[in-house]
Every structure is written in structure tokens, then in C-alpha cells.
Specification:
The complex is a heterodimer of chains A (about 120) and B (about 100). Chain A has no helices and eleven strands. In chain B, strand 7 and strand 8 form a beta hairpin. The chains are: A mainly beta (about 120), B mainly beta (about 100).
Chain lengths: ~120, ~100
């Protein structure tokens, strides 16, 4: 059973860089896409982006200028860096495994089937 | 950018059927997924590819998708089903709906 575990600082100062890591256990990091999703207090889910096992990435356009994701297959970890943070970046950050494929009619589908427990990050001086 | 719209809240009596809708332009031409999130917990995948359930998800959860609307239906709703529910689709990127709080009363 694949399990994901987020780790990183719980407090980041404004204008600094938020850095989180997700460790994958119980399964392979290859052949999947690995996502970051966040949830501000009392609000809904916001997709941040994903990185593939081959290293290609896709980011939310609203965050793209500040986001970088990377993947270390040897450590079975993937990471998120979010620069120039503000209080609006305060949230629970989840890592998740994203599955995607094409159906018989070449229609693409995608969903997150495994989620980490989430880690709370507060942006404050 | 593509948007998915859900009602903020839905109420249902125990044992009754709850329907949670998700609206998006031509959503029926895409695949919808649904997630359940209980307070303090991470989301759980309930439905993928419109109507498929992952192993371990009770049969009372079902999904449909046609036209502009995807629907999550919970038959015989139980108190334990009280949670936030999110729809999600793919439109060159992952898109989530705003979430619906289901109250069982």
C-alpha cells in the first residue's frame, strides 16, 4: 500500500521560500505523476501542480511564476518550492499521487488516488 | 480557465438519498472524480472516471456525468457521510470544484 508523507517547516517568513518534501513508501515512484495540493484554512482545495516520474511538470497558472517541483527517484521523494510567500500562502499542503491515462477513445482522465496526511504551513513574521 | 461550480451546502436526513452536483461547461465531455474530506483529514478518492469506485468505497456512493453536470449520489446516507465533497476534472490541468458541505440531520 503506497503511503505519502509530507515534511518541512511549519512556519515561513513573508517573502521567503516555502520548501516541502513528500516521501513515497510502499510502492514505486516511477510511472506516476506526483502532485501538490493546498487548502487554506476554512477553504477548498487548490491544485498547485504535478511532476512526472520523467521530470516533466505542469503548474497552476496562478502560481506558475513562483513554483518549482523536483523529483528524486533514488530517494523516492518529490519536492515543492514556492517563492516569495505571503500570508495568502498559509495552508495545509498535501502531496498526492496523480493517476492519468487515456480511455479507449483517447479521452484523457486524471485523478488523485493516494494522498498524504498534509502538513500545515503558516506564513508569518 | 475552466471552472467547476458546486453548491456550498446540501442537507439530507439519515437513510435518504443525497445528491451533490458539479457544474462545468461541457463537463460531460470530460471525466469527473469525487473526493470526500472529513474534518482534520486528507481527501479520499470516492469516484473516478465519472462512476467507478476504488476498492473499499461503499456501493452507496455512485456517480454520473452528462451535459454540463456531474452528480455524486449517496444512497441510504449515514451520519458518517457528513463531510465536505469535492469534484475534480481535467482540462489541461487539474481543476477542483469549490466543495460542498454535506450535513446529515
Amino acid at each position: 500500500q503506497v503511503q505519502l508523507q509530507e515534511s518541512g517547516p511549519g512556519l515561513v517568513k513573508p517573502s521567503e521560500t516555502l520548501s516541502l518534501t513528500c516521501s513515497v513508501s510502499g510502492g514505486s515512484i516511477s510511472n506516476y505523476y506526483w502532485s501538490w495540493i493546498r487548502q487554506p484554512p476554512g477553504k477548498g482545495l487548490e491544485w498547485i501542480g504535478y511532476i512526472s516520474y520523467s521530470g516533466s511538470s505542469n503548474y497552476n497558472p496562478s502560481l506558475k511564476s513562483r513554483v518549482t517541483m523536483s523529483l528524486d527517484t533514488s530517494k523516492k521523494q518529490f519536492s515543492l518550492k514556492l517563492t516569495s510567500v505571503t500570508a495568502a500562502d498559509t495552508a495545509v499542503y498535501y502531496c498526492a499521487r496523480k493517476f492519468g491515462d487515456f480511455d479507449a477513445t483517447s479521452h484523457y482522465y486524471s485523478y488523485m488516488d493516494v494522498w498524504g496526511k498534509g502538513t500545515t504551513v503558516a506564513v508569518s513574521s | 480557465s475552466y471552472e467547476l461550480t458546486q453548491p456550498p451546502s446540501v442537507s439530507v436526513s439519515p437513510g435518504q438519498t443525497a445528491s451533490i452536483t458539479c457544474f462545468g461547461d461541457k463537463l460531460g465531455n470530460k471525466y469527473a472524480s469525487w473526493y470526500q474530506q472529513k474534518p482534520g483529514q486528507s481527501p479520499v478518492l470516492l469516484i473516478f472516471q465519472d462512476k467507478k469506485r476504488p476498492p473499499g468505497i461503499p456501493e452507496r456512493f455512485s456517480g454520473s456525468n452528462s451535459g454540463d453536470t456531474a452528480t455524486l449520489t449517496i444512497s441510504g446516507t449515514q451520519a458518517m457521510d457528513e463531510a465536505d465533497y469535492y469534484c475534480q476534472a481535467w482540462d489541461s490541468s487539474v481543476v477542483f470544484g469549490g466543495g460542498t458541505k454535506l450535513t446529515v440531520l
